[in-house]
Amino acid sequence: MERVCAAYFSPCGNVKAAAEAAGRAAADVLGLPFESVDFTLPGARTGDIAFGPGDVVILATPVYAGRVPNKLMPFIRDHIRGNGALCGAAVCFGNRAFDDALAELYMLARDNGFTVIGAAAIATEHSFAPALGTGRPDEADLAALREFGEALAKKAQKNGPALKTVPGAMPPEKYYTPLRADGTPARFLKAVPKTDMEKCTRCGTCARVCPMGSVDPADPAVTTGVCIKCQACIRLCPTGARTFDDGDFLSHRAMLEANYARRAESAFFL
């Protein structure tokens, strides 16, 4: 073994925090250098990301609608190569559930040449509804992630066996259906953030942080491509100029806040 890597898609930073906590802990146990491989922004997804048999990789994504984000999945499938690397597959879910996301990431990693020896589903703050899981991963979560990273490293040292399975349908068959507060389906696929131009300073932050490259840097009020509702432009706008005002989106957020306020538990598999 030569290095430990945390490879992640993390628009709002929670996945990065989780993956790096586990990865750094594994690197400390193994006495190896640690590297971050951040493929959040479009410029980082222009070609293959290849690992090798000397690598231990924490491969991490958020959970969107109970799955690996559907706009990200083809890049992972077609361009992230394990080439015999050991892997801890990790998904971060916003205090509701991880559904089939961990099973999907496990299969993508396994089929792309990683030997998956561990997996984790980590409860984090919900990007839609920050009242759910506020501040997570918190110190208790990070401590659990460090323990997971240490255990993963010790398993790697002992040439422990690959995981045979993780919870979830294999292959996944459906996405979670967002619901309105009244229990009917919420339809906000085409919703995009609105910009209050009285608050906007045209600093360009929203355009720089959009993982789809869909905000026009010349006019932040214009969305030029797909919006995956990651909230990066909203969370990172320094003046609070970006918001969602779509009725179904807001109703879905209200439903989540009404039904998923408990502290969700993370799950680890080795």
Radius of gyration: 18 Å
The count of helical stretches stands at 7
CATH architecture of the largest domain: 3-Layer(aba) Sandwich
Residues in β-strands, percent? 15-25%
Shape: globular
The level of helicity is: 25-40%
Query: Distance between termini?
Result: 19 Å
Number of E-type strands? 10
Give the SSE string. EHEEEHEEHEHEHHEHE
Strand order of the largest sheet: 2-1-4-6-7-10
Look at the structure and give the mean pLDDT.
Answer: 96
At CATH level 3, the topology of the largest domain is Rossmann fold
> What is the C-level CATH assignment of the largest domain?
Alpha Beta
SSE-based structural type = alpha/beta
**In this structure, how is the largest beta sheet organized?**
6 strands, mixed
For CATH, the homologous superfamily of the largest domain is named as Flavodoxin domain
The unreliable regions are: none
The total number of structural domains is 2
